[in-house]
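ok trying this again, last paste got cut off
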Amino acid sequence: MKGLATALLFVGLVCLTAIAGPLEMSFGGGPSAISLDAINESIGLFNALITHLNETFAVHPDVTGAVDLVPTIGGGLYLQGAERYWFTDWFAAGGYVGYSRASTSTTGFYEGSDISEITVDLAFQTVGGVLTAEATFLDIGLRIGGFGGVGYYYVLLDRVTVFEIPIEYPDIIAGVPPEAEGRYTGGSIGFEAGLSLAYPVAPWFVIGSRLTYRSARIAQLVDSAANILDLDGDDAAESISLSGLTVQLTVSIHIDLSLDGRKE
């Protein structure tokens, strides 16, 4: 009985291998743009306060110094490793893991009777795992196709914010962002779709490019103590929009899994 089961398993594996098509392993990278709309709205509030302080102390007789504005965040390098199984010459299914990083920062000081520090340092990282389906709709040597998928995106945001207002400031000032430091995390399901170009340099080696649009939003990020990310101090969680575009250059290796040596 055990021998029969082993024989049936062997025959099944042989049959699957006989009908198998090429397995594609792909690596790529390129620029990625992410919305991060709520984060950039908070940065806009930071910059409004910094601009006001710079203008105030530029003409103040007892305080010197200025602070550079905080650049918006959203652009960064994207890296991806993918695997696709081609069921036919034109249809494949697979998945990939992608990683992107973006950061922004500023720091400066006002010097009066004491030294007051302004620091904003935000470092954003995303890891995503996406299941995809892909189809080639034109093959003229250069292959043009489309793809779509659903996946899960996990975000880490390292945050340092310090806003020390010099005591020489002439009035009571409202809306000063809270001072905080920590790592915030969260995740959500999202969707991707895009276009691909591929040029076979050899039957087993392909170079190409991919344009991807991603749609995903994380309701909130929390730190290890379950505190929500609240950059502007309004007691409301900052949602994280991951929507945006990614452009990649890719290289792929095709591995023929069939017994008869068929190529794609």
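PB: full thing came through this time. The helical segments are 2-19, 37-58.
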